């Protein structure tokens, strides 16, 4: 085989390979564009195979007719391809169909050998159509973006070169002065180059596609690092939509998943317009969100009839929707719209998927920033509340002590001398309210001391059984039974006042949150070098979600109604502080409706201050 033969064989191999690839794709994903590509490369394959087989089998007439028919399909198929991404005048389409039919009839009538004038006319016709297609592809390439633009550029180059190949081959018999070898070399070179250009344009290898996508993704990523810091999530979504639209070259919208309402929310660009809510499975976005895959629709009016009216009004003829998710967490969906199915829908789908992944990273980063800002704000608010309360508590302490003492004195005097006619019930209420106020003020001041780790004072060997007995006696009354179970004498080195406060708090809570006056049990035992106390109740219990937080400052269970159960959420915080300053710990077990058990473990030695 000489060099020309080799050139020819390589060009033919490229065309046949391209045909195999586009045919496979058309079978896997049958869209009009894929069918037209298969028709175009199929015709070329017929021409190539016929030209190889004909000399071997003695050039029968039917082969020549098939070859002519296949050649004449080429301009028609290419024009259909142009028509699948922009409008081709119907008259032009009809003309190519008529020429195709006429040339097949002429080939049959002339028994495969049309006269020279007809051949020349055909060559002229070919060149005109291919040049027209090349120009249309160039025009569309200039309007397109990214991979689509590069693919269209390749296709336009392939069309121009194939036109030139056919021109050179067609005029060869009429060029008497030029050596045939030169014309052949030119023809074969054009054929090879057009084969490569078409291959690259219609079925580019993955590596090339990735390389083509890189600049767009780079530009997107460069922005992506700054996007999460925009003032609001709305701004971030808008910026992502703009970037995606300019990368793909089609309008883009992002819908964010609303966990509470179970809908995707699309916020309109122009604020007076209403937020669009889409349920999973609905429209292009909802479907991609449910399936977790990039979804392409070449006919949204048919595929999503529920949105037909909107699609028709906004001139949407094709949609690509890509789910935005980070790991298992579904964040939203990215939707791209086009007036007609994209020529290279697959590339656009891949790009949409990549952009959605980037958008997920940006939105996750944004959510993190918002969460940490929220945490900081909550921390600051809690600090402010605490500072304010402890300042107020300081100032309240002295007058409150006087009010409390006076209320208790008046209550006692009224009870001693009922005949004096004082309002005993009113004075009792006054004294209880003053006591409650006193407890609140003490709690606030203790919480502030706890912050400084100055809550626990001098420790001394203390009989914890006696402490338990004191507290039990305080709460054991007609309404509540306190069951005490002291399994052995336990003496620990502790700040007695604070341990009493801790136990008082636990038993007070146990009675307060036992609305049916069910019994409360206090258990005391020794476990090695540790004193163990448990306070059990059969009250309302604590929801599992709240359990990890109930020892935090100002934290209250979500099943606790402020009007029914008074409290500030400081008691357990102080209890934890007391236990930990003693080198011990406190924890709770609970089930809603069944009751709670609070456990305390204290080292007997009193050593091991954590601070
Ligand atoms: P307060 O009782 O003033 O709200 P605490 O810090 O003592 O504050 O308790 C924090 C929260 O823990 C309470 O609001 C309540 O929701 C829950 N809690 C504490 N003890 C019990 C208990 N024995 N039974 C049910 N819930 C409890």
Describe this structure in words.
The protein is an alpha+beta fold. The protein folds into four domains: 3-204, Rhopdopsin 7-helix transmembrane proteins; 211-372, 2-Layer Sandwich (Beta-Lactamase); 379-451, Helix Hairpins; 460-603, Heat Shock Protein 90. It contains 17 helices and 13 strands. The strands form three sheets. Strands 3-2-1-6-5-4 form a six-stranded antiparallel β-sheet, sandwiched between helices. The relative contact order is 0.05. The model has no long low-confidence stretch (mean pLDDT 87). It binds adenosine-5'-diphosphate. Adenosine-5'-diphosphate binds next to helix 16 and helix 17.
Write the layout of secondary structure elements.
Layout: H1 3-28, H2 32-56, H3 61-83, H4 90-109, H5 116-143, H6 146-171, H7 180-202, H8 206-224, H9 233-248, E1 252-258, E2 263-266, E3 276-278, H10 283-291, E4 295-297, H11 300-303, H12 308-314, E5 318-326, E6 329-338, H13 345-416, H14 424-451, E7 460-463, H15 464-475, E8 482-486, E9 491-494, H16 496-512, E10 520-527, E11 530-536, H17 571-581, E12 585-591, E13 595-603
Parallel strand pairs: 8-10
Antiparallel strand pairs: 1-2, 1-6, 2-3, 4-5, 5-6, 7-9, 10-11, 11-13, 12-13
The protein binds adenosine-5'-diphosphate.
